[in-house]
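Issue 218. Parser rejects a valid record. Input:
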Amino acid sequence: MRNFSLAMKENYNVIGVMSGTSLDGVDLAHIFFTNNNGKWEFAIAETITVPYSDLWVKRLKEAVGYSEDELTLLNKEYTALLGSVIKSFIEGNGINDLDAVCSHGHTILHQPHNGFTLQIGNLPEIASIIGVKAVCDFRVQDVQLGGQGAPLVPIGDRILFSSYRYCLNLGGFSNISFEEKGQRIAFDICPVNTVLNYYANQLGLEYDDRGLIAAKGKILLPLLSELNSLEFYKLPYPKSLGFEFVKEMILPLMDSYNASVEEIIATFTEHVAQQIANTVMGIGQGELLVTGGGAYNDFLIGRLKQLLQDTVIVVPDDKTIQFKEALIFALLGVLKLRGDVNVLSSVTGAAHDHSSGSVYES
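Output the parser choked on:
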């Protein structure tokens, strides 16, 4: 049921919170939304990415193999951590009169084919920790409705970035969204930083800065061919990826080659470029907006420009690159508060469009 008291509201003061599979940290963005006769406008104010400690990176990486009891404890402790991070952001920036904090949490398990997805940090206690209404846990309802539970960002692409033919996010995974015959279509394309960062870590680096490692490495054509032949890439959309795919399919394949880390990174970067280019070329021409940490990988962006010479590739300002997902989860929270649709069945494959998420009072 639509909440008419909030639906009449035109201005919203919210915080969007996102933690991605690349484990860069917690992204927080203070957002002001205005609804002008059905057209949404936004302004990004304060932003920050709060990095995880080495211990939390280790726990979040290993959690895919945790028992149910271990996951329950992790969820409780991560909710406390996330609440503390959000509270510090609010107090440190003197933010007042918030309508809500809209938080994605952190994905640990994503198995829509088994009717299951788990994002930790979405326990009701988070609202009392931060002292503000919390809107969170956006994926579970969609999976219960037979959907993939992902990607959720495309409705934000439609509402906030409709001037672009495509919106491409290069985060832990790459995903794309676009309009086709009046419907928003979106799906995951391939892993990106979950894999590239994993191998950069073996060189003592957090990531392949600007793609300099990939630029110097030799591409292993047999490995590239095997990567491009993986069954996932032949599946029709809607489709989505989780770290399980990387752990079970990507890493064992790459580690089966007696290759240097530089060769592995170069080959996988080329794989990413080819999979994205194949996807875009299969749809048509137009402007492509690129956001996410991978937008700073100059070598990858350069390869995309070489492969997509008829496509205008737009890399926006830093705040939009880094905090677009936090921005859109802020929007999803606002839409939930209004009782408006915030998940598109054309994207996820759910039984119908719906307004997803849990709302917790402080």
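Fixed in the parser; the record now loads. DSSP finds 14 helices and twelve strands in the chain.
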